[in-house]
Design a protein that fits this description.
The chain is α/β, with parallel strands linked by helices. The protein has a single domain, classed as Methylglyoxal synthase-like domain (Rossmann fold), CATH 3.40.50.1380. The strands form two sheets. Strands 4-3-2-5-6 form a five-stranded parallel β-sheet, sandwiched between helices. Strands 1-7 form a two-stranded antiparallel ribbon.
Length: 201
């Protein structure tokens, strides 16, 4: 499979630069947007059609947003192998809709811990859980799913979809590599910080 049609996207970003223009372009291409928390509020506030994550999963966000995208209707929609009959059957049985585009950047952990006087509690609350899971799921299934972690890639993605309704396999491969490097760097920063804070324990 060289290309994948984009019909549904999930957008959940802490760094919201450029996301309005990107989402408007997706909406103009009749791509359904699923979103979370502050991202959803921003898009709705700018009259961009969006399906809130709770409506998409049939389950509300929990625990101050700690649990929102960790749901089979999200990860099943991302991880399903689209040409596997069993996967397709299980999607139908469980009302799982395919998600073709995952646009995520993570809680600003590094920026948080660089602030003077930051507490360990504040640092821990800025450890993203659902975001890395989304990124890794999409990157793993890049044969069918496009993952975007860098706003510098927004324009190129829109350009490909406008041209053919699809994102090329070569682009999906490149973005998957970038995504795994992104989550690896994020986890390394967390490990380094906690190692320093808990040194001597």
């Amino acid at each position: 499979m060289e290309k994948t049609t984009v019909k549904r996207a999930i957008i959940s970003v802490s760094d919201k630069r450029g996301v309005l223009e990107f989402a408007k372009a997706l909406s103009a291409l009749e791509i359904e947007i699923v979103s979370t928390g502050g991202t959803s509020a921003l898009l709705k506030g700018n009259h961009i059609p969006v399906v809130e994550i709770g409506a998409f999963t049939g389950h509300p966000e929990l625990m101050d947003g700690r649990v929102k995208t960790l749901h089979p209707r999200v990860h099943g929609g991302i991880l399903a192998v689209r040409d596997n009959p069993l996967h397709c059957e299980q999607m139908a049985q469980n009302n799982i809709k395919p998600i073709d585009l995952v646009v995520v950047n993570l809680y600003p952990f590094v920026q948080t811990v660089e602030r003077p006087g930051v507490t360990i509690e504040e640092a821990i609350e800025n450890i993203d859980i659902g975001g890395p899971a989304l990124v890794r799921s999409a990157a793993k299934n890049h044969r069918f799913v496009t993952v975007v972690v860098d706003l510098a890639d927004y324009a190129g993605i829109i350009g490909e979809i406008e041209k053919s309704g699809m994102v090329s396999l070569n682009t999906r491969k490149r973005l998957a590599v970038k995504a795994f490097a992104y989550t690896a760097s994020y986890d390394s920063a967390i490990a380094a910080y906690l190692s320093n804070v808990y040194a001597g324990i």
